[in-house]
Specification:
six-stranded antiparallel β-sheet; single chain; Endonuclease, Chain A; 3 domains; Jelly Rolls; 441 residues; 20 strands; alpha+beta
């Protein structure tokens, strides 16, 4: 019985807390009604008339003050208390305007998505990196939407002809994947530029792309850097071709904080860069590029309905690495506990079309999976099996000889091995991530 009373008491307190505004209005209405009604229910010469009216006036004033506090002051007071508490707990971070530090890009993506970052942008988005392939693929529609809505977008990419690219290529094992990423990204950005020009939306913003030749000091995303509400996310350290995770820092515009430092560094990189010509129409070039990555375009086979359905972005396992532009996918966001114990075998696929009579010059797929994956390209089964979710470098698979003009299908047979001692889904996760780059003429 006592437990019931305690529960009821807790519910009442929650009810009162969630409806303070309603109560403030109710108190004001009761007080005002008492003040107005006192003259009607009490005689004009009654000794109780003035005390009752003054008490009712006091009640109505309490309601007005409570209402004003809830609407105008409580949030402000709460934020002041919050800032004061943060300064006590972590004074250096607050003083420097550091909102968060993330150990790698995956942790950053889980905390802050591009959609959230770009939601409240007012004037400018400024992004700098090595190839920006993930921006030119996964975020191209978001960039296009912002430019068409009047936002200025500046993108900073490494010059593919820079000697630094060769240096980074050697650091990455001598493969030309990095150079191809830059060239593909620039081709896609040119295409995006022409799509924006062809759109008749009035008061469009501007998309500008610059290339730089020096070793990149950092990668960054800057939102409204000229505004007091500006935000900058910067990788701590340069990209040098290795897959070593780099921590990221998110800072806000605070006086004498880190924001001004990163803002100056970003501007220095822009000033030392040169404009990339966006006027060349990529559709007129002999070589065209197509980039496809794991995400919303990936499908999985549902045996219950005997049909293919859209795959889901899945939770990453500890130690899993990413691939630029791609997202880890599976049939659901996570396995069940039973699947973690017994293992699973699922089919996923990617379908795409190459123009009629086109000749494939290069087709490279970067892939990671957990546990293993077998690949079938247009009914040709590749002999090797692929995994490497935690490898420093993903698998690089050449499939140009298997692609054809017209419709193409790549099927992934994903196998997760049994783990009898698994206690929860996160003990034996599974998933797939890939990016396919095709050059054709």
């Amino acid at each position: 019985m006592a437990k019931t009373e305690e529960t009821n008491g807790l519910n009442i307190r929650e009810w009162v807390r969630d409806r303070i505004l309603f109560l403030a209005v109710a108190i004001f209405v009761v007080g005002a009604a008492g003040y107005i009604g006192a003259g009607k229910f009490l005689d004009a010469h009654s000794i109780w008339l003035h005390p009752v009216r003054e008490f009712a006036l006091l009640i109505s004033l309490i309601g007005v003050i409570s209402l004003g506090y809830e609407i105008f002051l409580r949030e402000l007071t709460f934020n002041e208390y919050k800032e004061a508490l943060q300064e006590i707990v972590n004074p250096d971070a607050v003083r420097l305007g550091i909102v968060g530090i993330y150990k790698n890009r995956s942790e950053l993506a889980q905390a802050t998505s591009f959609e959230i970052l770009f939601k409240n942008v007012r004037k400018e988005v400024f992004i700098g990196g090595s190839s920006l392939l993930s921006i030119s693929t996964a975020s191209r529609e978001l960039i296009k939407e912002k430019v068409l809505s009047g936002i200025t977008v500046r993108l900073l990419v490494m010059d593919p002809d820079s000697p630094v690219v060769e240096l980074i290529t050697k650091q990455g094992g001598g493969r030309h994947t990095f150079l191809n990423e830059i060239k593909t990204s620039l081709l896609l950005l040119q295409k995006l530029h022409h799509e924006i020009l062809d759109d008749n939306t009035p008061n469009k913003g501007k998309l500008s792309v610059h290339c730089y030749e020096t070793i990149p000091s950092h990668s960054f995303i800057s939102i409204d850097a000229q505004s007091s509400s500006g935000v900058i996310i910067a990788d701590i350290g340069p990209y040098l071709g290795r897959s070593t995770p780099r921590p990221s820092m998110q800072v806000i515009n605070k006086k004498n904080g880190m924001f001004d430092y990163w803002k100056e560094m970003n501007n220095i990189m822009w000033e030392n860069s040169k404009p990339f010509s966006m006027e060349d129409d990529p559709s007129t070039k002999s070589t065209k590029a197509l980039v496809l990555a794991s995400g919303v375009e990936t499908e999985y086979y549902d045996s219950d309905s005997d049909s293919w359905k859209k795959a889901s972005i899945c939770q990453m396992g500890n130690g899993w690495q990413g691939i630029k532009g791609g997202q880890w996918v599976w049939v659901r966001d996570t396995v069940t506990t039973e699947e973690a114990i017994t293992g699973s075998q699922k089919k996923l696929r990617l379908q795409f079309n190459l123009p009629t009579e086109s000749a494939v010059r290069r087709a490279e797929m970067l892939l990671r999976s957990d546990d293993t994956c077998h690949i079938i390209v247009n009914d040709v089964r590749l002999l090797q099996e692929y995994g490497g979710a935690e490898y420093a470098d993903p698998f690089l698979i050449d499939i140009d000889q298997y692609l054809v003009s017209g419709d193409n299908t790549i099927t992934f047979e994903l196998v997760s091995y049994a783990k009898p001692d698994a206690k929860a889904p996160e003990d034996n996760p599974t998933g797939l991530i890939y990016r396919l780059q095709v050059e054709y003429s």
